[in-house]
Amino acid sequence: MPTNKLIRIGTRNSALAMWQARHIADMLASAGYSVEIVDIITIGDKILDRSLSKIGAKGVFTEELETMLRNGEIDIAQHSAKDLPSTLADDLPLIAFTKREAAHDVVLSLNPDFRLASHEGAVVGTSSTRRRAMMAKEFPHHSLVEMRGNLQTRLEKLKNGACDAMILAYAGVHRMGMESYIVEHLPIETFTPAVGQGSVAIQASSRLDSALSAAIRKLCNDEATEACLLAERYLLAQLDGGCSVPVYGHAQQHKDGLYLRGGVLGLKGEVEMVASATGSEPESLGKVVAKELIEQGAQTLLQDIRKQLAS
After folding, report:
1. What pLDDT digit, counting tens, does each position of 186-211 carry?
2. Which residues have a catalytic role annotated?
């Protein structure tokens, strides 16, 4: 048992990120590894007065950790898979994806009777352009407010009256023990989640010892989740998407194979392009769905959206 080997895990320092880092640490410690968690504050955590689309960097939650990997300051980095840019440098591969939590979005409110469909003119908080576009399409009678910050900060804003309700990923709410505030579970069919939502990705430098990399992968990787997330990420890469544009993608294991549904929305929900396919190989499946979206005009729409967000 490799008790003398220390593995340094890099992570953001939010409560949710630290939970995820400890989750990885527990899996490694169970096999006899010594683990050190190295936490930092990323640019995405420092700049809270602007939306993610206005900050400018693609890897707002990952760039500093990637630098630490290259410098040898950490051995692996853990990320919420949904925060990863659509493409990564060849020298910083993803070596594992943890078993996915339920990937859907939920509505949180202090009013247990609150429902998006039945309340008129509510103020709803979200920091996601995807969720804002979906809200504009499905529930245009509500007003939306920007809601940046970690989950605890957002919950305090809700309690202080900044909004009547807010939309978050179920996985984070569950991990932080905030389920008591959930008033509505949103269906994946209409509120399809962001690519990677619900899983933790482990990134390493290509210089990491290959035997250690393989051991970490064996301990932490869930193959069914990996297949789904790779299909989603290939879709995202073909569209050159990211967490600051209204692109979604969600893959599930069906009896006939891997089913992937993806789409792109206009910022105000005025247009939506949707495509889906079933296949057995994640890369080809992601590319097939992306090709159909591109044929519908997705790349042109995304170019227009980026110009709007930058202005």
Report:
1. 999 999 999 999 999 999 999 999 99
2. 83
Q: Please report the domains of the chain, with CATH numbers, ordered by start residue.
A: 6-99+199-221 (3.40.190.10), 105-185 (3.40.190.10), 237-310 (3.30.160.40)
Q: Are 242 and 85 in contact (CB under 8 A)?
A: yes
Rounded Cα distance, 205 and 208, in Å: 6
Give, in order, the Cα–Cα distances in Å from 228 to each of 81, 215, 222, 281. Answer: 12, 22, 10, 10
Q: What is the pTM of this model?
A: 0.90
Token pair recorded at residue 293? 């979206």
SS3 letters across the chain: CCCCCEEEEEEECCHHHHHHHHHHHHHHHCCCCEEEEEEECCHHHHCCCCCHHHHCCCCCCCHHHHHHHHHCCCCEEEEEHHHCCCCCCCCCCEEEECCCCCCCEEEECCCCCCCCCCCCCCEEECCCHHHHHHHHHHCCCCEEECCCCCHHHHHHHHHCCCCCEEEEEHHHHHHCCCHHHEEEECCCCCCCCCCCCCCEEEEECCCCCHHHHHHHHHHHCCHHHHHHHHHHHHHHHHHCCCCCCCEEEEEEEECCEEEEEEEEECCCCCCEEEEEEEECCHHHHHHHHHHHHHHHCHHHHHHHHHHHHHC
CB 170, CB 106: distance < 8 Å: yes
- Write down the pLDDT at residue 85: 86
**What contacts 179, CB < 8 A, 6 or more positions away?**
173
Q: How many angstroms separate the CA atoms of 141 and 300, rounded?
A: 28
